[in-house]
Amino acid sequence: MAQEDMTTPKQPPPLNIPHSDLSVKVSCIDSTCRLDIPMGPFLQPDYIGKDRLLGPCFAFLIEHPSKKPILFDLAIRKDWEKLPSYSKWVELKWGIHVEKDVAEILKENRVDVDGGAVDAIIWSHHHWDHVGNPQTFPHSTSLVVGPGFMAAHTPGYPKNPDSTLLESDFEGRSVREVDFEQESKGLQIGRFNALDYFGDGSFYLLDTPGHSVGHMCGLARTTTKPDTFVFMGGDASHHGGEFRPTEYLPLPKELDPAPPKRRGHGICPGHLLADINPHGSATKPMYYVTKLLSHDKEVADWTIDGLGEFDAHENVLLLLAHDDAVVDPPELDFYPKPLNDWFEKGVGKRVKWLFLGDLEEAAKAKEKGEKAFSWGTYP
């Protein structure tokens, strides 16, 4: 049943994705990582019943029809106790659980990792929960990083005792730093500078600054008739509530099926969610990123607004690296199954509003006449 919106949506800005007859095979790898960290310092407001930021760490395998596969992100390394910041996370009592390295998962599925089957690893950015362990790949597998990355984040530890990266991540390995101004030839997709990675319109890197120096997202064409895409969001955002709802994608009048925590109670009225929106709005996001989670908050907000523009196009499936709404239980096909038929299976529509299940307790509080949220005083 089609969902009716609480207000008439505006037409989203055109994305202006160039035409191509080529697509790539895309697989979302559930890397076996699970995070459990405080939410308030990173996202605001503080909703009743939602004080932890939970989530997986996704990596993506991108397989071109005539070129070697590449990876977008590597999640968390299994031996994360070797990282420079280990003692800090223990002190903060962050929940970090990792069963396997991404390379191990690929090998279990007959990918000849040690033989150099993977051409390159693209890091969305420099943070520990995305860079994984490049040493589990041979030196023939190169690294691809975003603009300004090398100057801002290298050398690694121990050469730079303050670095969160390991110098061994780079040793003996080719590193390519993308220069969008020089390499994109003026190409913009949505509001972002873009690089046609393979030169054939099948996969793009997008310049998505704000969270970290050198942050990039990926955009893969999954089918050509019709054109459909998977947007690999990295840490441009951490929760669907940062870019939903918008004026292009308002809250629906009814959520059917309801978010998971409300199932068994019937259809969820959209007005319950609008009532707990910080602005009492059906067209403004539920959450805002804090300065603590941003290298440059103003730029990060601009990038998040851009994500909302992509997300409003029904032929784009936007997946964040830590999107806990689509795991436990899985709401889409994970590796070794490909994601290419996501549109045909209706995945985009099914998962769009699942994040609202996080706000069930806040909605209940509002119904009782109690406060649904409060604003923290974080930097």
Automatic annotation (TrEMBL):
Keywords assigned by UniProt, alphabetized: Hydrolase, Metal-binding, Zinc
Domain Metallo-beta-lactamase, first and last residues per copy: 56-271
Keyword Manganese on entry: no
GO molecular function: hydrolase activity; metal ion binding
One Pfam entry name: Lactamase_B
Recorded family membership: Belongs to the metallo-beta-lactamase superfamily.
Name the record gives this protein: Metallo-beta-lactamase domain-containing protein
InterPro entries: MBL_superfamily_lactonases, Metallo-B-lactamas, RibonucZ/Hydroxyglut_hydro
